[in-house]
Every structure is written in C-alpha cells, then in structure tokens.
Amino acid sequence: MSTLIQRLAILNSHPEVLGKSLRGIEKEGLRVDSHGSLSRRPHPAALGSALTHPRITTDYSEALLELITGTHTNVDSLMAELDEVHRVVATTLSDELMWNHSMPAHLPADNEIPIGWYGTSNTGMIKHVYRRGLAERYGRTMQCIAGLHYNFSFDESLWELLNLPQATAQDRRSAGYISLIRNFTRYSWLLMYLFGASPALSKEFLRGKTGDLLELDQQTMYLPHATSLRMSDLGYQNKAQSGLKLCYNDLKTFLSRLYDAVTTPWPDYEAIGTHRNGEWIQLNTNVLQIENEFYSSIRPKRTTGPCERPITALAERGIQYIEVRCLDIDPTQATGISAQTARFVDAFLLFCALQESPPFADSGWCSESTSNFATVVKKGRQPGLMLSRLGREISLKQWADELLDEIARCAETLDQTLGEKSYRNSVLAQREKVADAARTPSAQFLEQLTSHKVSFHDWTLEQSRVHALKLKQAGLSPAELAATQAQATQSLMEQQQIEASDQESFDDYVARFHKALKKPV
C-alpha cells in the first residue's frame, strides 16, 4: 500500500481534520481608464488606506490593486468574500475599472509608472523605498504583471496524524510543509498546463524586446503552445536572482541560503547605491533587499510582528502556511478564479502534503523540476510534449493522467470528510483538459482572439468592462456598504495615527529594520 493511500485512510478515520484547513486569496489587478490605459491617479481615498486596510491595498504600483480575503474553512465562503471585495472596488471606482488579466494593460513609459505610495510614516516609506529598489533592479514595467496568490494551511493535528519523526510539534509542522513544497516544485507544471491563461500579451508591454515570441496581430505577441507567459522569463533575465538555488530539503538550510541572499552585496546594485540626490532609492545593495524579493512559485510563510523579518519569524516559530504564487488570473471570472479551480488547488496541495516526497539530491534544488516548469509555460500544449521524470522522458499527457489519478483519491477524501461532491468534479474537469488541449484556458483565450479577430488589449478591455458592469449591477447590500465605508474610514484613521506616532528618523528605522534580521541557527 502506497504512502498516499495509507495517509488518506488515516484522514478518512479523522474526518474533522480537513475541515479545519484554512485558505485565503490575494488577487491583483491594475486600475485602468476607459481606454484600458494604466491609471495615473492616486489610490482612491474611498477605498481606504493602502497601508492599513485589511482587504484592499496595492502591490507594486499605485495603480496595482491587491484584494485580500480573510481565511476560510471552506471554498464557498472564500469565494463569497472574494466576490464581495470585488463588488466594493467595482462600485467605488467611477470611471475606472480593474484590468482582469495577469498581463498588463497599456502602460506609460517605464519611468512614468507610479510606484505605490503608503504615506509618510516609517512603515509606509519602507514599503515605498523597497519598490523604488525593484524599479532600479528590474524596471517598473515587469512589476505590473498581476497574479493570484492562494494561501493554505492544514490544521496542526494533520502533522501529528502523519507521525512525522521530528521531535517537536513545530518541527513536524515545518517538515511537513517543506515536504509539500518539494512535491509542489515537482508537480506544479501541471497547474500551469491546467490553469495558465496568458499565452499572449500586448506588444507594447515588451518595449521592443520580443524575444522568441511571434506576432498574432499588429498589437499582440504570443507563443502558439504557451500556457503562461506570465511565468516565463519573457526575455528578461536578472543575474543576481538567477544564481539563487534555495534548498527545499529542510527549513534551516532554506533560511540559511535566503539569509545569505539578503546580506550579500551584489556589484551591480552597489554601483547604484542606496541614495540618489539625497533620497533613498533602495533599502540596501544586497542580492535581495528583503526576503519577499525572491521570486518563486511557492513560499513558506509565517505572520510577522512589527519590524520582524520573515526569516526570523520562520526560524523562531516555524512555517505557518504556504503561499501558492503561480496561478494566472482567470480572465473568464470576475474574481479571477472559479470555485472549481480553488477546489482543485485544495486537492492538489493535499496530494503534495501526503505523497512521498524524497529530498532533492542536487543540494536541495531540483533543476529537473525547474526545467519541466519552464517547458510547460512556453509550450505546454505542444502535441506529444515530453517532460523529464527522474532522468527519463515521459509524455506530459501520461504523467498528467497519472497525477490526476492520485489527486482524485485526495478529492474523494475531501468530499467524504467535508460532505461535498464538488472536489471529485473539479478533478474530472481537469481530465478533459488533459485529453484535449483545446479545452485549456490558454487555448481558449487564443481561440477567442483569433475567432473574433481582436487584439489582446481590446479583448481583455471588453471582458474587464463586462465583469465590472456585472459587479456594479450586483452592488452592495446596505449592511455591506456600511461595513465597507467604516472599514475605509478606520484604515485612514489608523494611517494618520501611525504617522503621528513616529518618533525616529527613517534612517534609524531602516537601520533597526536591518538589525532585526537574525542569522538562522
């Protein structure tokens, strides 16, 4: 009997455990004008403070909204809150709308893209300066790509039931999540095939660097078999990050390598410096300014306190949850994701947690998995595509079918323990995509562009308008409106209080922020 089957049997005999799992979503989207051009306006005051609002903030750009749900024990309530916060935005924006695709709308010149502003407090300024540093290192254009992050945690009792060998509950939990991350790294190419929805993009976005992309029309570039150009290199390379190979064999080594990255200077960044004309332009000249600068498809996470660094929090208290970062925004859904997709991700993560997960041999970094992922994002729908599994070629279709067989077992357990039927249906829907690549979101998106003879930009703008109209028509109930206005007002007051309470200079605050980083032991 396989490890997966044995562990599922344990969970079937403890049906309460999976019902305590938590999931939440962070969904990004650019504010654009009626012509689909990036908004130059500040973050709307009616949406509250981007610094302190618990559900509505901004990511890189002042125009890049980030909508955040709370944590939920089931998908239906998660989707209900995600829908509500989208209705809040749609009804608040008057002559603007939220761009509903991962690849950006029409952007101004790179240096004219507005960087997120969070007020004059030290906590607000450190967020702004970090983004200035990203602009110096990668350019502003690339930072306008949007995604959907899926946060997930299992109840503590799961790791106890799996009888992991670590000595303490904290160590067992962290080891369990690291094991999950290894399997996610092995198999996340499947998510890109099934849910990648960015096979094309606006030619303007590339700033003349078309790389190996082909022309679909005068305004649109694409790759014929791509699934997610968002997750490809798009012809842009960053030498500092490309050399990072973090270890996913154990949390201690992972944190040690991440610590080295945030404390080791990089010559090109040293040449830029931290100040220009007396102003901060990056937090430091290291390979990474802070931990979150490391771009990865999944992250181990732990809630941090004031001025606490993620490395320190993870080292002291272990992994609390994982953040899945590779999902494209689904342009067919007003909220960017369907309940069916969310349920499949749940089943996929359960599979990754329960499946045998041997350590990576290559110093904790799996180059084979990295190669498979890169292949699928650029040519995942290519007929007869072959991937590499343990050094041997295997067709994407065969491997996907085998994985779906195992994920289906997890879906059955979720349905049985949660009293649902939707999880098994979410797997069945993915089988159709494996059987026929034309059913994948990426293929469907290209088909819409070609059949309607319309550019990426014009099609996405029209779909974004349709979604915005539906959300506005649904509106907010009186109770929702009152709560929304109170939340926005409260967040603005909190920002003012933070700004009024600052007692140290920004230079001193940055020094204290860096000093808070402790080397993992």
What do you see in this structure?
There is one protein chain. By secondary structure, this protein is an alpha+beta fold. The chain has a single domain (3-515), classed as 2-Layer Sandwich (Creatine Kinase, Chain A, domain 2), CATH 3.30.590. Helices cover 46% and strands 12% of the residues. Strands 1, 2, 3, 4, 5, 11 and 12 form a seven-stranded antiparallel β-sheet that branches. The chain has a three-stranded antiparallel β-sheet with strand order 6-8-7, covered by helices on one side. Strands 9-10 form a two-stranded antiparallel ribbon. A hairpin with a 5-residue loop joins strand 2 (56-58) and strand 3. Helix 2 (75-92) packs across helix 16 (456-474), helix 11 (339-354) crosses helix 14 and helix 13 packs antiparallel against helix 14.
